[in-house]
Amino acid sequence: MAQRVLLIIGGGIAAYKSLDLIRRLRERACEVRVVLTRAAQEFVTPLSAGALSNDRVFTDLFDLDDEREIGHIRLSRDADMVIVAPATADLLAKMATGQAGDLATAVLLATDKPVLVAPAMNPRMWDHPATRRNVRQLVSDGVHFIGPKAGEMAERGEAGVGRMAEASDIADAALQLVGGRSEGPGPLAGRHVIVTSGPTHEPIDPVRYIANRSSGKQGHAIAAAAAELGARVTLVSGPVALADPVGVDVIKVETAAQMMEAVRSALPADIAICAAAVADWHVVEAAGQKMKKSNVGAAPTLALAENVDILQTVARRGPRRPGLVIGFAAETENVIEHGQRKRKDKGADWIVANDVSPSSGTFGGDRNTVHLITADGVTSWPPDSKDGVARLLIGQAADWLSHHRIDV
Ligand code: CTP
To answer: Is residue 212 flagged as an active site residue?
Structure first.
């Protein structure tokens, strides 16, 4: 049956992306009804939103005809879910405090349906303690979030976390939300998922370190996808420039040794997913003080030692082994063969093998092309956004758990 989506478009430069969102939702067989806030009408017109949704567009709480014909209560009850995109800092603040001064906020206060929010704002506004507080409040009220993402902002020279999620990712998340809701609290409710993400930094001295190009986008997307399906998620993250995914416990670490320790203390878990690009080596004796050219003399030689393999350690047989252990294989050639070998060598149940050669644009980029390697064989997935890959992977993991009894 077609899902009925009520889309509230807030006032922000990202509002134009919400026109595309209407299209993406309709492609997925959703019926879309649109509410535009007053500020949104500065960016998109009711005419364009109405042409795409093929329905009339609602703008004003005090339009008597609307109140007689349909009213904000019915507007919210007639939908299967509500999406707020873009959700501005102002709209989030109003939602968090239960205001109902215009049609959009009145609908949000009146609804008893799942609400998915896609924030978009200046990174400093997103980072502001008031916005953090409002988001925490909304999460504890049961509101679902997607994004925002890191990247260039519309304002020149502004970069950071604040970009609205892509329209197709919002549409996928929305459908997953209504799908999950109809079965109850989500297929991963009551499950604990540990995810490692990002690079590690291995110090050379107090100001220098060894690092790699991992952005953490894939690992963070996996943590967010697991939380969306109702799991308790512990995300152990190396240094990244990403927002903490909403509804996830984040433990921030620097080195491989710290990441191992954090994972160990987060166990037991039903699923462990090692998506971090853990440095393979650390400097044997990091200098306590900044190394000075004058003291070191000629170019120094760094003695390196291998880091503990977190994936291999977690996958070791034993009472605390998670039921499903998933690793990644970042490869620049012979992707599947290397992935298959890593699955065996490390004792992982599944390996997600991906091409990270510079030409693939995977490292740092938003898209990923992966092969899922299990004991049963290899499935190559079509290229997808990292959010899409995360949802597919978590969906399959949830499905696997539902068919295998494990006790944590
Ligand atoms: N991994 C880990 N701890 C390490 C190294 C790797 O947990 N010290 C995990 C990664 O999170 C990933 C998998 O092992 O899930 C494979 O990582 P990758 O860097 O592709 O492999 P390496 O072990 O570094 O092997 P190689 O050097 O042969 O590529």
So the answer is: yes
